[in-house]
Amino acid sequence: MWNQLQELTRHPAAVFLKKIIGDPVQLYAVFLVTTVMYYYHSGMVWMYTVIAVFVSWLMMRFYDFVARHKWIGPLTYLVYMFAGIEIVGMITRLGQQSYPISFMVWFLTPQNVVTFSGWYTASIYLLMLGFLTSTVYYFSKIRYRMSMQFLIMLIPLSLYAKEGLQMPAVLVIILLASYFLLMIYCRQMHNQTEIRYLPSFHGSMSIAVYVLGFSIIAAIVPKPTVTADREFIENAMSYSTWSDVLMNAISMFTDTTDNSVGTSNNTRTIYYVASPEPLRLRTQTYSYYQSDDSWNVIREYDYPSQDYHTGSELTYRPQDVLQAILDAASQDADFAETYQLSDLTATVLPEQNLRSVALCCVYYPVQVLPSPTRSFSTVTANYLTISKTNTFGGSIGDWVDVQYYSDTYARYEAVIPILQKLSGAEYASLLQDAQTVLSQTAPEEATLLGEIQEEYQEAYAYLDTIQKQDFDSEIIRNLAKQITSGLTSDFDKANAIQNYFLEAGFVYDQAYQKPSGSNAEYFLTESKTGVCYEYATAMVLLCRSIGLPARYVQGYNLNQMYDGNFRFRDCNYLIKVRDAHAFPEVYISGYGWLSFEPTVPSMDMLENQEAENKNVARWGFVLLVFAGISGIIYLYLPRIRESLFRKRILRLAPSETAAAVFRHMCQLMHLPSSTTVNELAVQSQAFCSERTLFDQMDMLLYGHAEALTPQQIALLYQNWHDSRTQYLKEQAEKRRQEAKTKRKNQKTQKA
Fold first, then answer.
1. Which comes out higher in pLDDT, residue 290 or 569?
2. DSSP for 420-464?
3. Quick one: average pLDDT of 155-173?
């Protein structure tokens, strides 16, 4: 069997394949490049791998030339290096002509945030291919340093780790297996007195068995569930800090945002927070949605137009608005009957207390300080600017107190029935009539309703402006009408749209890559899979299509508890990069702007880690089954081969039978092909003294008369084979007994 496999390895195709991919040093470099390119462009990783195989082979031959020539080699390498840098620079410049940000910003920014760039990806590919192949070659064939090879392996691993991404299980196993294969190869390749390299098929099989065994054990052995905070690790990676700074800078100097919101797993803490409850905190609103699945701002609306100083109120208390409407209904029966409020006049509204959330920026100055939807501020920082849609300001280490009215008030049991009676279609007339009723008895309430009427008009004027330039979709309009069929109030319609995503089986998946060119229509009708960006976008468009003013908001989801203290404040929440969140705000009659949460729940980090561990283990079991089947074949293959051989020789002519038996016996005895029949007989004397078989083979092989039939030769061969098998067993037993006696004697001598 081994001889036949060795014959296959001599085939021209096998020789060419071995020449191209038979070097463990080259394979390790190729797999390193593969893992890097999977991070940058997973869809075409197979193409990058195939190209890397052939290009790295050429590079390795070039490095061999450099290593053999003392002077001309290094000079040639310098020319090669500068030429490579120039080519990469040229490709990068081509990319900068068609891409909105520079190469370094693109390189340092998480790839799940930026859009794909072919030129930039090609630059990364060439850089990594040149750097990884040269460093792997140097620390294996020039200077044997496996510790450096391990550090090199951390380069692609760090790309995934800094964003909390999961490397595919197959790549993990291949990368680690290639590392250990390289380690074995390098130790054999270098001169060491205690190690001898066996350049044989059996030696290669031993290495293959070792690598396979390691891969199985590494994959199947249960992995510990890591619950520790990764922040210390990420702080040690300086480029992670740069990524955060760059993302903050990008968000502030562009008027657009794309579907990257909610795709980062970076656990770097950016704010400490002391809050009485979980919150959705806003940093930026966007008004126009484009068909290319991006949002744009209206500068006069989405950016602040004036400064709000300490104690300047930005919002009214919704309880006061609702109470004014109830008071008008209590004082005027006609008003109550017209707007169907008669059965609610006795409602006692719960108190809507002012709450306070304190935030402290941790690492770098920010231009955007997160704040709740309905907030005004008491500032302890050097400065702070707050608008109706954004909160600006904040320095490192400064605590900022932001006071707000909680959106949870709209979900109180006593409040919901009132909001369910109010509809945008008649809300303007309700406010006008209520002001008339209250103008004499409660002028302060009438004044407040007048302000609310102005806000209502501004909200619907905003909607009219948006609808003239916004994305228009008949599919979305029809779906919104279907979802809200039979509902009249703004509150019920918005809640129905929010609940639709959970009831219709939508899925939250950070790893999902939607097709290029798709937008909210595709999300609502085809994929039903995405992150908070898709859900917030879809709800805003659905609400707008049925006449509800709505806006897309980006900020953070405040849900990460913290049990420590920071700078004498009761910090109980953390905001991390991965908490970046998108959500809609809808104008609800009777309440004003109210935030909603259409994003369906997702698996937490521990569940993702456990799922990935199971995936790795699954591949380990696949390798284990493969190894088991291979082991069974290895054990039973000699018996199967022997049985087939005995059947085959019965169909041959006597001379052919003798020749086949002779070759087979030489293979079993591990004798060279130049062995004669007499030499074979001498080698067999230890277990077979009968000469009949050898005499008959000699006669048949050298053209003498045919004395025996194939059946008789087969029978004589069977006796020889059985004698040899019995002899080998006896010798093995003899060695075991000798070893046992030796150990016994050693124990006696020690005693």
1. 290
2. TT--HHHHHHHHHHHHHHHTTT-HHHHHHHHHHHHHHHHHHHHHH
3. 70
